[in-house]
Amino acid sequence: MFTADWSTFLDPLIYVEAACQNAFDTAAGMGVFSAYAAYFSRKTGAVRYGVLLPIFNNLVSLTCGLTIFATVFSTLIQTSPTLTIPQIVALMKESGPGSTGLTFTWIPVLMSKLGVMGRILCGLFFLCLSFAGVSSMIAYIELTARTIQDFGVKRIWATSASLVITFLVGVPSAVSIEILTNQDFVWGFALMISGLCYCGLVIHYNPLRYRQVIVNEFAISDWRLPTIWVFVMVVVVPIEAIGLIVWWAYQNITTTDWYVIKVESLATTFIEWAILAILLAGLNLAFFICKLSLLNSSTEIGYDPYRPEDIPPALEYERTREIPIYPNGYISDDIATFKSRP
Length: 342
What we know:
By secondary structure, the chain is mainly α. It has helices spanning 12-26, 32-36, 46-79, 85-93, 101-112, 115-149, 155-175, 177-205, 207-217, 228-255, 266-290, 328-334. Mean pLDDT is 79; it is low at 320-342.
Protein backbone atom coordinates (compact mmCIF):
# COMPACT_ATOMS: atom_id res chain seq x y z
CA MET A 1 0.00 0.00 0.00
CA PHE A 2 2.87 2.35 0.75
CA THR A 3 4.98 1.28 -2.24
CA ALA A 4 4.74 4.01 -4.86
CA ASP A 5 4.17 3.18 -8.51
CA TRP A 6 5.71 6.29 -10.03
CA SER A 7 4.19 5.67 -13.45
CA THR A 8 0.72 6.35 -12.06
CA PHE A 9 1.69 9.97 -11.39
CA LEU A 10 1.41 10.49 -15.15
CA ASP A 11 -2.21 9.29 -15.18
CA PRO A 12 -4.68 12.20 -14.76
CA LEU A 13 -7.41 9.79 -13.67
CA ILE A 14 -5.52 9.18 -10.41
CA TYR A 15 -5.68 12.87 -9.50
CA VAL A 16 -9.26 13.29 -10.69
CA GLU A 17 -10.50 10.29 -8.72
CA ALA A 18 -8.59 11.39 -5.61
CA ALA A 19 -10.05 14.89 -5.81
CA CYS A 20 -13.56 13.56 -6.42
CA GLN A 21 -13.26 11.08 -3.56
CA ASN A 22 -12.30 13.83 -1.13
CA ALA A 23 -14.99 16.11 -2.55
CA PHE A 24 -17.57 13.38 -1.95
CA ASP A 25 -16.34 12.36 1.51
CA THR A 26 -16.17 15.91 2.85
CA ALA A 27 -19.15 17.21 0.82
CA ALA A 28 -16.91 19.91 -0.61
CA GLY A 29 -18.50 21.35 -3.73
CA MET A 30 -21.82 19.60 -3.06
CA GLY A 31 -23.42 22.60 -1.38
CA VAL A 32 -24.01 20.78 1.91
CA PHE A 33 -22.12 23.35 3.94
CA SER A 34 -24.18 26.09 2.32
CA ALA A 35 -27.17 24.54 4.08
CA TYR A 36 -25.24 23.95 7.31
CA ALA A 37 -24.05 27.55 7.26
CA ALA A 38 -27.66 28.62 7.79
CA TYR A 39 -27.30 27.34 11.35
CA PHE A 40 -23.78 28.60 12.01
CA SER A 41 -23.28 31.26 14.61
CA ARG A 42 -20.29 33.55 14.76
CA LYS A 43 -18.78 31.18 17.32
CA THR A 44 -19.12 28.01 15.24
CA GLY A 45 -15.58 28.03 13.87
CA ALA A 46 -15.93 27.49 10.13
CA VAL A 47 -12.17 27.62 9.52
CA ARG A 48 -11.51 25.14 12.29
CA TYR A 49 -14.06 22.71 10.86
CA GLY A 50 -12.71 23.29 7.36
CA VAL A 51 -9.25 22.17 8.47
CA LEU A 52 -10.07 19.34 10.87
CA LEU A 53 -12.83 17.67 8.86
CA PRO A 54 -10.64 16.76 5.82
CA ILE A 55 -7.78 15.68 8.11
CA PHE A 56 -9.92 13.24 10.10
CA ASN A 57 -11.72 12.10 6.96
CA ASN A 58 -8.42 11.12 5.34
CA LEU A 59 -7.19 9.44 8.52
CA VAL A 60 -10.34 7.29 8.61
CA SER A 61 -9.96 6.52 4.89
CA LEU A 62 -6.34 5.50 5.45
CA THR A 63 -7.34 3.21 8.33
CA CYS A 64 -10.05 1.59 6.22
CA GLY A 65 -7.57 1.18 3.37
CA LEU A 66 -5.11 -0.61 5.65
CA THR A 67 -7.88 -2.95 6.80
CA ILE A 68 -9.03 -3.74 3.26
CA PHE A 69 -5.50 -4.27 1.92
CA ALA A 70 -4.58 -6.60 4.78
CA THR A 71 -7.81 -8.54 4.28
CA VAL A 72 -7.40 -8.97 0.53
CA PHE A 73 -3.76 -10.04 0.67
CA SER A 74 -4.17 -12.46 3.58
CA THR A 75 -7.28 -14.02 2.05
CA LEU A 76 -6.06 -14.39 -1.53
CA ILE A 77 -2.64 -15.69 -0.52
CA GLN A 78 -4.34 -18.49 1.45
CA THR A 79 -7.15 -19.29 -0.99
CA SER A 80 -5.25 -18.68 -4.26
CA PRO A 81 -1.56 -19.28 -3.58
CA THR A 82 -0.77 -19.16 -7.30
CA LEU A 83 -1.62 -15.46 -7.48
CA THR A 84 1.34 -13.11 -7.48
CA ILE A 85 1.47 -9.79 -5.66
CA PRO A 86 1.05 -7.77 -8.91
CA GLN A 87 -2.02 -9.86 -9.76
CA ILE A 88 -3.54 -9.23 -6.34
CA VAL A 89 -2.86 -5.51 -6.68
CA ALA A 90 -4.55 -5.58 -10.09
CA LEU A 91 -7.64 -7.17 -8.52
CA MET A 92 -7.77 -4.45 -5.87
CA LYS A 93 -7.58 -1.67 -8.43
CA GLU A 94 -11.01 -2.76 -9.65
CA SER A 95 -13.32 -1.33 -6.99
CA GLY A 96 -16.42 -2.84 -8.57
CA PRO A 97 -19.33 -1.19 -10.38
CA GLY A 98 -20.29 2.10 -8.76
CA SER A 99 -17.36 1.79 -6.33
CA THR A 100 -19.14 -1.03 -4.48
CA GLY A 101 -16.52 -3.77 -4.70
CA LEU A 102 -14.06 -3.30 -1.86
CA THR A 103 -16.60 -2.80 0.93
CA PHE A 104 -19.34 -5.20 -0.12
CA THR A 105 -16.97 -7.93 -1.29
CA TRP A 106 -13.99 -7.96 1.03
CA ILE A 107 -15.47 -6.99 4.40
CA PRO A 108 -17.74 -10.09 4.39
CA VAL A 109 -14.69 -12.16 3.39
CA LEU A 110 -12.76 -10.78 6.36
CA MET A 111 -15.61 -11.38 8.81
CA SER A 112 -16.23 -14.92 7.52
CA LYS A 113 -12.83 -15.94 8.90
CA LEU A 114 -14.02 -15.19 12.44
CA GLY A 115 -16.78 -17.79 12.64
CA VAL A 116 -20.02 -16.94 14.45
CA MET A 117 -18.54 -13.79 15.97
CA GLY A 118 -17.56 -12.70 12.47
CA ARG A 119 -21.17 -12.91 11.32
CA ILE A 120 -22.23 -10.75 14.24
CA LEU A 121 -19.48 -8.23 13.55
CA CYS A 122 -20.34 -8.23 9.85
CA GLY A 123 -23.97 -7.48 10.64
CA LEU A 124 -22.95 -4.69 13.01
CA PHE A 125 -20.56 -3.28 10.40
CA PHE A 126 -23.22 -3.01 7.72
CA LEU A 127 -25.72 -1.71 10.26
CA CYS A 128 -23.27 1.08 11.13
CA LEU A 129 -22.68 1.64 7.42
CA SER A 130 -26.43 2.03 6.95
CA PHE A 131 -26.56 4.55 9.80
CA ALA A 132 -23.72 6.45 8.15
CA GLY A 133 -25.69 6.52 4.91
CA VAL A 134 -28.83 7.74 6.67
CA SER A 135 -26.95 10.45 8.57
CA SER A 136 -25.34 11.61 5.32
CA MET A 137 -28.73 11.60 3.61
CA ILE A 138 -30.07 13.93 6.32
CA ALA A 139 -27.56 16.53 5.17
CA TYR A 140 -28.56 16.14 1.52
CA ILE A 141 -32.27 16.30 2.42
CA GLU A 142 -31.60 19.49 4.36
CA LEU A 143 -29.70 20.96 1.42
CA THR A 144 -32.66 20.44 -0.93
CA ALA A 145 -35.20 21.52 1.68
CA ARG A 146 -33.26 24.68 2.52
CA THR A 147 -32.98 25.55 -1.17
CA ILE A 148 -36.74 25.12 -1.63
CA GLN A 149 -37.35 27.24 1.48
CA ASP A 150 -35.36 30.03 -0.12
CA PHE A 151 -38.27 30.42 -2.55
CA GLY A 152 -40.73 31.11 0.25
CA VAL A 153 -42.03 27.55 0.78
CA LYS A 154 -42.91 26.52 4.32
CA ARG A 155 -40.54 24.15 6.10
CA ILE A 156 -42.90 21.15 6.22
CA TRP A 157 -43.65 21.31 2.49
CA ALA A 158 -40.02 21.92 1.57
CA THR A 159 -38.89 18.89 3.60
CA SER A 160 -41.64 16.70 2.14
CA ALA A 161 -40.73 17.75 -1.39
CA SER A 162 -37.06 17.11 -0.66
CA LEU A 163 -37.80 13.57 0.55
CA VAL A 164 -39.92 12.78 -2.51
CA ILE A 165 -37.40 14.25 -4.96
CA THR A 166 -34.48 12.40 -3.34
CA PHE A 167 -36.41 9.12 -3.36
CA LEU A 168 -37.49 9.41 -7.00
CA VAL A 169 -34.01 10.41 -8.17
CA GLY A 170 -32.41 7.58 -6.20
CA VAL A 171 -34.73 4.76 -7.29
CA PRO A 172 -33.09 4.15 -10.71
CA SER A 173 -29.64 3.81 -9.13
CA ALA A 174 -31.06 1.48 -6.47
CA VAL A 175 -32.58 -0.94 -8.97
CA SER A 176 -29.90 -0.84 -11.68
CA ILE A 177 -26.17 -1.22 -11.10
CA GLU A 178 -25.54 0.24 -14.57
CA ILE A 179 -27.34 3.46 -13.67
CA LEU A 180 -25.52 3.60 -10.32
CA THR A 181 -22.20 3.19 -12.10
CA ASN A 182 -23.10 5.90 -14.61
CA GLN A 183 -24.19 8.37 -11.93
CA ASP A 184 -21.10 7.67 -9.84
CA PHE A 185 -18.87 8.22 -12.87
CA VAL A 186 -20.56 11.31 -14.32
CA TRP A 187 -21.47 13.30 -11.24
CA GLY A 188 -18.42 12.28 -9.24
CA PHE A 189 -16.30 14.20 -11.74
CA ALA A 190 -18.87 17.02 -11.75
CA LEU A 191 -18.01 17.73 -8.11
CA MET A 192 -14.81 19.35 -9.35
CA ILE A 193 -16.82 21.74 -11.51
CA SER A 194 -19.19 22.45 -8.63
CA GLY A 195 -16.26 23.22 -6.35
CA LEU A 196 -14.82 25.47 -9.04
CA CYS A 197 -18.11 27.39 -9.13
CA TYR A 198 -17.92 27.97 -5.38
CA CYS A 199 -14.38 29.19 -5.87
CA GLY A 200 -15.69 31.55 -8.55
CA LEU A 201 -18.18 33.05 -6.10
CA VAL A 202 -15.36 33.94 -3.73
CA ILE A 203 -13.28 35.41 -6.56
CA HIS A 204 -16.27 37.46 -7.74
CA TYR A 205 -16.84 38.80 -4.24
CA ASN A 206 -13.11 39.61 -3.83
CA PRO A 207 -11.07 36.97 -2.00
CA LEU A 208 -9.11 39.53 0.03
CA ARG A 209 -12.34 41.10 1.26
CA TYR A 210 -13.90 37.68 1.82
CA ARG A 211 -10.98 36.58 3.99
CA GLN A 212 -10.91 39.77 6.01
CA VAL A 213 -14.60 40.66 6.37
CA ILE A 214 -16.58 37.44 6.00
CA VAL A 215 -14.18 35.15 7.85
CA ASN A 216 -11.61 36.80 10.10
CA GLU A 217 -13.57 39.82 11.33
CA PHE A 218 -16.95 38.11 11.44
CA ALA A 219 -15.87 34.96 13.30
CA ILE A 220 -15.47 34.83 17.06
CA SER A 221 -12.96 32.43 18.68
CA ASP A 222 -12.14 30.80 15.35
CA TRP A 223 -8.79 30.18 13.69
CA ARG A 224 -7.53 32.99 11.50
CA LEU A 225 -7.59 32.39 7.77
CA PRO A 226 -4.01 32.95 6.52
CA THR A 227 -3.13 35.14 3.57
CA ILE A 228 -1.89 32.13 1.58
CA TRP A 229 -5.54 31.04 1.33
CA VAL A 230 -6.16 33.89 -1.12
CA PHE A 231 -3.42 32.58 -3.43
CA VAL A 232 -4.87 29.08 -3.19
CA MET A 233 -8.37 30.26 -4.12
CA VAL A 234 -7.32 32.60 -6.92
CA VAL A 235 -4.51 30.58 -8.51
CA VAL A 236 -4.09 27.01 -7.26
CA VAL A 237 -7.70 25.80 -7.20
CA PRO A 238 -8.75 27.12 -10.65
CA ILE A 239 -5.57 25.88 -12.33
CA GLU A 240 -5.79 22.50 -10.61
CA ALA A 241 -9.48 21.95 -11.39
CA ILE A 242 -9.40 23.16 -14.99
CA GLY A 243 -6.05 21.50 -15.66
CA LEU A 244 -7.16 18.10 -14.36
CA ILE A 245 -10.43 18.15 -16.28
CA VAL A 246 -8.71 19.16 -19.54
CA TRP A 247 -5.91 16.61 -18.99
CA TRP A 248 -8.39 13.85 -18.21
CA ALA A 249 -10.54 14.71 -21.25
CA TYR A 250 -7.49 14.88 -23.55
CA GLN A 251 -6.24 11.48 -22.43
CA ASN A 252 -9.69 9.96 -22.96
CA ILE A 253 -9.96 11.45 -26.44
CA THR A 254 -6.52 10.22 -27.49
CA THR A 255 -6.55 6.74 -25.91
CA THR A 256 -10.18 5.55 -25.82
CA ASP A 257 -13.35 5.47 -27.92
CA TRP A 258 -14.57 8.54 -26.09
CA TYR A 259 -17.42 9.18 -28.56
CA VAL A 260 -19.17 5.88 -27.80
CA ILE A 261 -22.31 6.29 -25.67
CA LYS A 262 -21.96 3.83 -22.81
CA VAL A 263 -22.17 3.69 -19.02
CA GLU A 264 -18.72 5.17 -18.45
CA SER A 265 -17.50 7.31 -21.32
CA LEU A 266 -16.44 10.88 -21.96
CA ALA A 267 -19.30 11.43 -24.41
CA THR A 268 -21.90 10.28 -21.88
CA THR A 269 -20.37 12.54 -19.25
CA PHE A 270 -20.42 15.62 -21.47
CA ILE A 271 -23.97 14.91 -22.65
CA GLU A 272 -25.34 14.68 -19.11
CA TRP A 273 -23.39 17.77 -18.05
CA ALA A 274 -24.71 19.64 -21.10
CA ILE A 275 -28.33 18.67 -20.35
CA LEU A 276 -28.07 20.04 -16.81
CA ALA A 277 -26.25 23.19 -17.99
CA ILE A 278 -28.93 23.88 -20.63
CA LEU A 279 -31.73 23.43 -18.08
CA LEU A 280 -30.09 25.77 -15.58
CA ALA A 281 -29.25 28.34 -18.24
CA GLY A 282 -32.81 28.18 -19.58
CA LEU A 283 -34.33 28.76 -16.14
CA ASN A 284 -32.00 31.67 -15.44
CA LEU A 285 -32.73 33.19 -18.84
CA ALA A 286 -36.48 32.84 -18.31
CA PHE A 287 -36.32 34.59 -14.94
CA PHE A 288 -34.09 37.29 -16.40
CA ILE A 289 -36.39 37.96 -19.37
CA CYS A 290 -39.52 37.93 -17.21
CA LYS A 291 -37.73 40.04 -14.59
CA LEU A 292 -38.85 37.72 -11.84
CA SER A 293 -37.34 38.01 -8.38
CA LEU A 294 -37.93 35.03 -6.13
CA LEU A 295 -35.25 35.83 -3.58
CA ASN A 296 -36.10 39.24 -2.21
CA SER A 297 -33.58 40.34 0.39
CA SER A 298 -34.68 41.01 3.95
CA THR A 299 -33.19 43.16 6.67
CA GLU A 300 -34.94 41.29 9.47
CA ILE A 301 -32.42 38.52 9.89
CA GLY A 302 -28.94 37.73 8.68
CA TYR A 303 -26.39 40.18 7.31
CA ASP A 304 -25.76 41.51 3.84
CA PRO A 305 -22.19 40.51 2.80
CA TYR A 306 -21.98 43.74 0.80
CA ARG A 307 -22.83 45.86 3.85
CA PRO A 308 -20.36 44.68 6.51
CA GLU A 309 -20.85 47.94 8.40
CA ASP A 310 -24.21 46.57 9.59
CA ILE A 311 -22.51 43.68 11.40
CA PRO A 312 -22.22 44.42 15.14
CA PRO A 313 -18.74 44.22 16.70
CA ALA A 314 -17.78 41.00 18.41
CA LEU A 315 -18.06 42.62 21.84
CA GLU A 316 -21.73 43.41 21.20
CA TYR A 317 -22.47 39.95 19.94
CA GLU A 318 -24.89 38.07 22.18
CA ARG A 319 -26.83 35.42 20.34
CA THR A 320 -27.62 35.71 16.66
CA ARG A 321 -27.96 33.16 13.90
CA GLU A 322 -26.60 34.08 10.53
CA ILE A 323 -29.43 32.70 8.43
CA PRO A 324 -29.20 33.36 4.68
CA ILE A 325 -31.43 36.18 3.56
CA TYR A 326 -34.88 34.85 2.61
CA PRO A 327 -38.06 36.33 1.17
CA ASN A 328 -40.10 38.30 3.70
CA GLY A 329 -42.97 35.86 3.48
CA TYR A 330 -40.83 33.00 4.74
CA ILE A 331 -39.10 34.94 7.48
CA SER A 332 -42.42 36.12 8.94
CA ASP A 333 -43.36 32.48 9.64
CA ASP A 334 -40.22 31.60 11.60
CA ILE A 335 -38.77 34.89 12.78
CA ALA A 336 -40.26 34.44 16.24
CA THR A 337 -37.92 31.55 16.93
CA PHE A 338 -34.83 33.71 16.58
CA LYS A 339 -33.55 36.71 18.40
CA SER A 340 -33.59 39.85 16.30
CA ARG A 341 -30.38 41.51 15.25
CA PRO A 342 -29.19 44.35 17.53
